[in-house]
Structure formats: structure tokens, C-alpha cells
Amino acid sequence: MGSQLDALNQWVMDVARVTQPDRIQWCDGSDSEFAELVRGMEADGTLLPLNSETHPESWLHRSHPDDVARVEHLTFVCTSEREDAGPNNHWMSPADAHAKMDALFAGCMRGRTMYVIPYCMGPIDSPLARCGVEITDSPYVVANMRIMTRMGAAALARIEREGRFVKGLHSIGELDPERRFIMHFPEELTIQSYGSGYGGNALLGKKCHALRIASHQARSEGWLAEHMLILGVENPQGQTHYIAAAFPSACGKTNLAMLIPPEGYRNEGWKVWTVGDDICWMRPGPDGRLYAINPEAGFFGVAPGTSEKSNPNALATIQRNTIFTNVGLTDDGQPWWEGLDDRKPAFDWRGNAYDCNGPAAHPNARFTVSARQCPSWSPKAEDAQGVPISAIVFGGRRASLVPLVFEARDWKHGVLVGAAMGSETTAAATGAVGVMRRDPMAMKPFCGYNFADYFAHWLSFDKPGAQLPKIFHVNWFRKGEDGKFLWPGFGENLRVLEWMIERVEGRASATDTPIGALPKIGDIRLDGVALSDEARRVLFDFDRAGWQAEVDSLASFLDEFGTRVPVALKNEQARIAAELRNG
Ligand code: O2Y
Ligand code: MN
Questions:
Q1: What pTM was computed for the model?
Q2: What gap in Å lies between CA 343 and CA 307, rounded to an integer?
Q3: Which of 146, 366, 487, 517 could serve as a FRET partner for 576 with CA atoms 20 to 30 Å apart?
């Protein structure tokens, strides 16, 4: 056995000594292993089989009612220096964090099985992929990790070859919110999570590894780990452009990643291919372009709102082999959530008879499903070299000011546009509606180091020989005076993507403004879209006075990160502010 596996074995034994499980199970990712896990979870009620005719090989899991979402206030980045984590993260010293976690983990797996899950984030043979091992006492986590990552024997073989892997230790503990912490030790490539069995808190390959730890690793290795979907747009000539897009949570990333072209476009031969719906790792290739992989193998998507209208591809994807978490249930054992259809469920997400008071599904109810089941899954999604990115899109939920789309004038300006990203909160996220929160590159909850250094890292890609993507900003959420959305969204968003691609190819026109290049209404194909006069006026409008206030507030935001903010970025803000002033 190679020394790399010795190191892994040693760590597993060290963890077992502390946590004291009754049994240790090394997961190989096989069908028989999965079947055995499911049998156990059906027996103890962790999983409820769904209607096998409508939803074969699918289950419902109900989490503890106090354990239904990521917990940002309990999520820490534990670097030796507080400044390295930055004001964008909660920080704890590694020594304090280890002491706290050691106490929590002591004896916590008594009476339980400890599962060892070797996994690979990204196609198993990709040079862009990275491996990890999660140790957990939750069979539900094992089942989800099998869907969300390349888990098992092949990953273990890669770990043996490479040596380096991210160590993730997870225990559900008592599921007590008072004893819940999600700790990241980027300098040790280590994650420790205690007290939650839910989503991003527990499936450590996802937000913890593929974003927080990976962003840190990417900085030192010269690549980017981003909270972005990746899609391919194929034109009627059969050429495909790949686009990576960052939106804060709850802005419809999964819907955009699985977009179905409007009928007219479909008839012309346009297709949209899904490469990823949440995370994108990209690095410069030999030709200077950025090449991207989706490190995940599945979707952990929000169920509420997913419907035949909003996302037919997602709905088709989750008809079989799917784990649903915290959805409602119909009387014939089908999963149900708000926005799905007009049926009335029999049970809510807690398993109580549904009384029509409040939602039947939890607003953060999820489905976990293999990406391969998605009808729009890209044939290039598993390409080891990744896909070349033509455009990067930043977006937010902005009711006013921000036009439908604009193009940054160059990379530096694009980085500022990403740093300035903001979204107005929805009730589901925070309870406060319509408050603008800055969320640079949609990485506020996920950047494993100081945002000031992160901005500098982004800027560093602009070097001789680089063939960088164009950067755009979109706002699908502009509202009219009546409070209704002005842009129809969904499939119609392809019209905006088409304009971007034409800009990349140097074929579309636009008007230069201090905030970037804006299409005039005639520059985007709008045939067959019902847009009000107000929409036509407002969606393509540049409001100089409004932008002056916006860009001033951006200066204050950058100042929150102190003297580490790159001078080039501050100068870029000052340049735009001056252009706005000078007309
Ligand atoms: O609440 C959770 O644990 C899930 S959050 C999540 C899940 C899938 C994709 N993105 C997100 C997110 O919050 O960005
Ligand atoms: Mn996300």
C-alpha cells in the first residue's frame, strides 16, 4: 500500500479514536453499497420510498425542523491570521477552532457507523479536478455524496496516485443549533462540520470543499473556484459558446443552466446545453482562454417553484433516482411543492397532515439527482480539459436602476462589476424584503479568504497572452411602476445570451456609457416577446444620476476591505465615478 494511503488510513484511525464509532465502512460507490444503505434508511425511517410508478427509485427525507438550511453565522474560516479570512468571513483561530471541534467530536459516533467517503470533484481523469475524503456518521450524506460527486473506488485510486486530498470530518451530533459549527481550515485543506445533517453544512464536497477550500487553493495555484453555472449555447450552425454565470442564491441559476429556447429559436436550431448549475472551476489553457469544469456530478436544486413552466428540464431530471428533502407529499406518495401544480398535498414537509396553513414544502426543500439524467446535459460536461469560456455573466436581483444587460469595457472593469454585484433580498432568504446586499461574484458566503485578495487574484488573470472572456452584467428582475417584472425571463433570456455571443464575435452593436456598453432596444432580437412600452424604455435605459449614487456607494463598500483592496480596482471605480460626473 502506498504511503499516501498510509496517511489516509492514519487519519481515519485518528478520527475513529476520537469519535469512537461502532463500525467503520469504507465506501466504494457501488450499486450494492447504495442499495444496502437505502435498505437501512428505509428501515429506520430516514428515507421514505416514494410512489414507485410515478417516481421509481426515489425517496423523501425529512430533516430535523431546526436543520433546514446553510448556517452562515456558524460557518468559520480558520486561518492563522484573521486578516487572511477578511471581513467577509467569520474567523476563529485554528487552535481555538480545533479545541472546540475536538470537544464536540469526542465520542460523538458511539453506537453509529463511521463512513469513509473518497470522492473526486470534477471528471475523474481531469487535471482540473481535485479529491477529498469525507468521514461522516450520516448514511443520508453518503447517499447524497454518491450523487453529487464521483465517489468511491476510482477517487480512492486517484488519491493514492496524487497524495493530496481535502480532509472533511462530519458528524450530525445531536442536531442542536447551539452545538453546530462548520469550520474550514484552508491552510490544512481541512473541513470540520458538526451538528447539522443538511445540504451545504453536511455534503462537504459542495460549498465547503468546492468553493471555500477550493477558492483558497485556486488562489495559490492560479485558477478560479466560482459560484457559477456553466452552459453552452449552440447556434443553428452547430457552433457552441460556453458561458459561466454568477448569481446570488435564489436568482434562478438552475433555471438558466437548463434553459429551453423560445419556440422560434428552437425552430431555427438553437440549443442550450447544461454543464453545471452551481459551481465552476476554471483555469487558463495553453491558448490563453479560460477552461472550465463543473466539479459536481449532480444537482442539489431548490424544489419549490420548479415546474413545467419554470424548468421542464429539471422536472424531467427528477422523475426517477432522486432524493427529495423536506418536500410535501400527496396522498398517493408523490413529492409535491409550491408552484409544481394545482394538486393539494396530503402531508407537509414535517410529515403532518397538510392543513393549508403555510407552505407544504419547506422553502429550501431540495432534490438531489445525478446530472446525467438532465435532458440538456452537455456532451462536453465530462470533458477532462473542460470547456472554453467565451463570456462571464454577473447578475443580481435589482428592482430598479440596473438595465437588462451591459458589457464591461475590459477585464479590469469586469472585475469591478463582479465586485459590485448586489441583490435585493427575498423573504425566503432573510425575512427582510427588498434590502440591497452586496454579494461580490455571488461569493459572499463562499469565498475562503479575504475579498480584497480575491479581487487581486481575479485581476491577476489579465496578463500577456491571456484570451479572457468578455464580462457582462444582467438583471432579469427589473420591476415596473406596478411592481411587476418587466422582463419575461426563463427561455427568453436566450435573447440576451445571443447578444452577448454576437458581442464576443464582434457582430452586435451597443452604445458606450460610463457603466459599460448597453444594447439599444433594436440590438437584441425581441420578435414575438410581449414587452410593454415601459419595459422597452426602462430595460435598456442608462440613468446617470442613479448610477452616480450607486458608484459612490460602491466606493464605501470597497473601503470596508481596507488597504488590501487593489489600487487598480479603486482607480477603476474612481474612473467611472469621474466619467459619470463629467458627462
Ligand atoms: O441550504 C443549503 O444547504 C443549500 S444552499 C445551496 C444549494 C445548492 C446550490 N446553491 C446553494 C446556495 O445557497 O448557493
Ligand atoms: Mn449556490
A1: 0.97
A2: 13
A3: 487
